[in-house]
Every structure is written in C-alpha cells, then in structure tokens.
Protein VAC14 homolog (Aotus nancymaae), 782 residues
Amino acid sequence: MNPEKDFAPLTPNIVRALNDKLYEKRKVAALEIEKLVREFVAQNNTVQIKHVIQTLSQEFALSQHPHSRKGGLIGLAACSIALGKDSGLYLKELIEPVLTCFNDADSRLRYYACEALYNIVKVARGAVLPHFNVLFDGLSKLAADPDPNVKSGSELLDRLLKDIVTESNKFDLVGFIPLLRERIYSNNQYARQFIISWILVLESVPDINLLDYLPEILDGLFQILGDNGKEIRKMCEVVLGEFLKEIKKNPSSVKFAEMANILVIHCQTTDDLIQLTAMCWMREFIQLAGRVMLPYSSGILTAVLPCLAYDDRKKSIKEVANVCNQSLMKLVTPEDDEPDEPRPGQRQAETNPDDALPKQEGTASGGPDVSCDSSFSCGITVFTAASTERAPVTLHLDGIVQVLNCHLSDTAIGMMTRIAVLKWLYHLYIKTPRKMFRHTDSLFPILLQTLSDESDEVILKDLEVLAEIASSPAGQTDDPGPLDGPDLRTSHSELQVPTPGRAGLLNTSGTKGLECSPSTPTMNSYFYKFMINLLKRFSSERKLLEVRGPFIIRQLCLLLNAENIFHSMADILLREEDLKFASTMVHALNTILLTSTELFQLRNQLKDLKTLESQNLFCCLYRSWCHNPVTTVSLCFLTQNYRHAYDLIQKFGDLEVTVDFLAEVDKLVQLIECPIFTYLRLQLLDVKNNPYLIKALYGLLMLLPQSSAFQLLSHRLQCVPNPELLQTEDSLKAAPKSQKADSPSIDYAELLQHFEKVQNKHLEVRHQRSGRGDHLDRRVVL
C-alpha cells in the first residue's frame, strides 16, 4: 500500500494501525474509525460516511496485503456499530467486501470476515433481510469450512440470522426458494446439515408457509435423507415428518400432483430409509388426494408392485406398499369406463393427450432430469400427468396396462407381485371393461403363458382374469372373424373365432356365434379364442397338461360354464391335426369329467340325456372322444348308452391293441369301482333289463390279460345274479323297461361310423410313423 496516498478522512495514524500485523493496534484503529463515523452521523454527512466505507472496502478489505484486509474488515464492522440504526442505508457497501473475504485462502482472515459480518448483522437486524440470499449463500459455504474456528464463527452468525428471520414478518420466501433449491443438492454433509437446520427454522415460523414451495425442495430432502451421517438423516426425517403433519392438517392447499413423480422416483431407490419414507408419503398422498393421483398410476404401480414381493427383512416397506396398492385400486370406479367405446375388434389405440408415457422434462425441485422411455428398461420410471387438481381426472389405461404387462412378463418378479398384477387386471376388467378390451389382444399371450407359473395361487388369479375376459359382455364383437384358412395351430397372437355356422356341428338350433348352449348366453367372442389358445398351450407344453391341466380345467368349470368349456374343447379337438395330442387331451378331459366334484351337475345332465341340449352335448363330446376308444366307452357308460358301448367294444377287435390301450382299459375298470359309477353297479342287479351293460363289461373282461384289473372285474361280474339270463334271444324280443330308450334325435349308427373313421385315421398315422422308423410298435399279441 502506498504510504503517501491520501486516505482522508482517515488519518495517517488510523491507516498505519489498520495495516499493522498486531490485532490490538488494528482494534485501536477501529475504535478511532467508530468515533469518526459517529461524528459524521451527528453531522448527517452521508458523503463522508460513504467515502470512509468505500476506502475501507477498496483500499483495505479488498487489498492484496493480508494485514490490510484484516484491518479493512474490523474497520467496516466499526462503521456499522457507529451507524447504528442507520447502517441499513449502507448495508450493500458494508456486506459485499466482507462476503468476498469468505473465499480467502487464509483461515484467520475468513474468521475475521465472519466476525465482522456478525457485528454488521447484529447492528442492522431486520434491515439485512433484503440481503438475505447473499448472506445465506456465504454462510452455506462457511458451514463446510475445514477450519473449526471459522466453522464456529459461522455458527454464531447463523444463529443470529435465524433469530432475525424468526422475529421478522418481512422475510422474502419467494426470492429465497431458488437459492434453497440450488443449495439443497450439496453433497457436503455440513452444508446439508446447514440446509436442514434452516428448513426447520422456516417451517417453525407461523408467517412463513413453506408448504407451498415443498415441490421445489422435496427431491433434495429425499437425497439428503440418504446421507451417510446418522445425525443428518435423523434431522431430515424430522423435517419430512413435520411437512407430512402439515400436509395432513391442510390437504386442500397441498400441490399433490407436483410432487407425485418425486415420490415415484424415491419409492424405487435401493436405500431402505428413503424407500420407506417415500412409500409412506405415497400412501398419505393417495389417501388424501384421491383421484388426483390417478394420472400417476403407472408410475406408482412401477414403484409399488415390486415391493409386494419383499421378504421379512423389508416387511415395513412391503406393508406400506400393499396399502398404497389397495388404496390406488379403490380409486378406479365404473365411472372411469366410457359408455360409448369402439368395438374391441377395432384395436383402436387409447387416446392420451400426453401419450401416456412421456419423458419428464425435469423435476420441479431442480434436481437431475430423470426420464425413461416406455420400454421400462431403466431402473427408475417417471410419468407425467394428463390433468391437475382443478381439471376432471380421466383414467388412461395405456400406461397402466403396459406396466402390468411388463411386470407379468418378468420371470424374476416375485409371486406376490404377480398376484397383485393379476388382481389389478381383474379389477380393471370389472370396473372399466370397455377400455380394457382395447388391450386384451396384447395381454392375452402373457396371460396364457402365466398358466405355466409354479404357484397355484398365481394360476388361479390368472384364470379369473381369463374367465372375466371370456364372459364379459364388453368382449362381444359383431364380426367374430372366419375360422377357415389357417388351421387352429397358429401362433398365440392370431386369435381366431369360429363363424356362427361352424360354432356347433350338432344341429343345434338358435345358437349365436359361440353361444353353443342356450343356458350360457354370457359367453363372448373371446371365449372361443381362449379355448383355442389354451389347447394350443397344452399341445406345445405337454408337461403343463400333465401337471396343471386338470387343475386349470376344473377351475375354469367353476369360473365359467362347464358345458360350454367341454362343448367348445370337443369342437376344437374334432379338427385337431395332431391325433396323438387329441387322444391325450380327450383322455384328460374324460378323467376330469368323471372324477371332478366341480362337474357333478354336468355329469347328472349327461346321465339321462332328457333334453335336446344334453343330447347335443353328448354328440359333440362323442365325436371328439372317438380319438380315444376307451374314453368313448366310458362316455357311453356315463350316459347309460350300454348297447352302444357294447357295439363299440365289438369294434375293438379291429383295433390295434397296444400296452397303452390296455392300460386305459385297466383305468376304466378302476373307475367302474369308484363312487361315480355306483348307479352302474346297482343296475347289474337288474340283469333282465340291462343285458348290454353286462355284455359290455364282459367285453372289457375279454380284452384284459390276466391282471389285477381282470380279477377285479371278474369278481364284480361273478356277483351278478342269475347269469343264465344273459342269453340275448329273449332280451331282444322285448324292449327293456329300465333300459333307457335310444333318443330319436341321436343317430347311433352314424356315431359308430364316425368312431370307425377316426380310428382308421389313427391307424394310418401309426403306420406312417412306423414306416419312418420313429414309432415304437407296442402292439401286444393276444
């Protein structure tokens, strides 16, 4: 510094003392400056006051010499003390050079700067509030200062500033929020602690409504919640807890929609505390905001559904996620469906003004721009709402269905999540069927694939969804599409429906489309699609048929109409080109028909064949059952067509008797001994009126080799009274009284010809395979 330079009105002694390296001398100079400024204040000499402040600022506080800077800082503090209540007129000139020294490399100088600013603020009090942002900015940097003395000094200044803000009603919150939003993303733990402490203070001031600006800082708060420091996490928990209490008290003033995506992001984090806290907030948002949250359903489900599969280590998160899921589901009502929807067959895309899954343009809190495309391939997914609190909420299903489809397709997803997805689909089909049927063709393949799931509960929920699709009136189309052309064994995506003329081959009258039975008018166009594709699934995945087939079909018979299921499957199998599969499937269906309690009513219907519907059902089943000779006989036993059963067994002599064939006869003998055929065994007591029943059983006995089944049936027939009455001469002369008369509407001769035709096809196929060398001849020489 030039000693000859004029620093008037500062005297040379003052200048010299300000530049001295000793603190005591600088302090003496400060007292002289204070005295000098007091005189100027008394004289109201503002020019000289400004000149003194400018000199101390430019020539000392901003000097290159460290001792001069220290002298300038203490001199500015002395000016502020001298000015007293008038210091507010010169605060900008007083504060700016001091704040510049906050960045000085010398820690002692930073401390003196902190001390000087403390004195300036202490004198000015509320007058410093217009300069709050620059003070806060400077303090946030000192909060992370490595020097403990500087940090201690900044804490004193921080407490003073908090006291001023708390007691004032002129705090400019609007101007402060942008700075707070910026500083809240600091990674320094001391800076984070400083930020949190200020938010707590502002939240405690009655005249400051920080809740209005919560969307600006919520993302940053959740990031601070993930800090490694236990104390900081605890402070942040307290802040978030206070905000949540305030939200519950004043839900009408909360900007739920602006914070929904922030919660969606943090509900997907790997940090347990952040995820649990965000999930608790989400639960409260859904319950408090209600339908305002519906436009964000896609994102909420993306975050919530995986949590439902958590184990006991994350039990708390799982429980809260379950409440979120249930609460969100309740928001969907029948009013969300539309009365006038395009037909499902039109495959019209759902209209959404925001394209359902747009990329987020950046979080309102100033955080990182987190976005994800509709493939859901990224870890965190964000969705933009199509409506706000003030606009009517319209439920758009495109994004929701895509999320559900994505989770159901993911084999790594846990069982409880898959069950929740299926419950969602079922709920949507119940509440908004017209909208949902736009998405049915895209959901259908994955729903069929889910039938191979390891969990019975998942399969059961899956069947409930498929049954609802197959029976909902909203799924009916005017034009079911032709069945001709490509055969039934096409890809899953090609869902075919038979034409009305092809739906029933049994001369049924009055049938419409797929409604093969007048008793079940609720089956829609998707019912036959379902049956076709279910059989495709069984054909391509034989293990599924063996392990889960009976369970699936029995449950479908409970959920839908058993007659329609058997009628449609028989109709489809009648045109099945894979004869081996047709035989296996018919055997499986027959076993289910004869043994399942779920089919008690259908068995009773078939026992008597009193109605035209039951006769048509018998004929339909018979034609397909012909793929398996033994099952055809068992069907005749069930329907008490004993004479026709006897005629069929007579034809067995022309068939190729294999080990598999004899095994099926063995199983039939075992079935005859079961409760299901109690009525048949009792009819053996009436030999005179049931000669063909006894003949048919003897025919089976003659087919069997000497085995346990042979002994079982032989012992049963030995119990038949008066065996001499088996002579058919007399029995043919008079019609049996208790023997059920053949129905005039059933052409048994034609049925027998159909049986021979089908068996000839099976024989040709076996011979072709044998000629290629890929068929093991399992014929048994009797």
About this structure: The chain has a mean pLDDT of 83. Residues 1-167 form a domain with the Leucine-rich Repeat Variant fold (CATH 1.25.10.10). The two ends are 127 Å apart (CA to CA). Residues 309 and 416 are 5 Å apart (CA to CA).
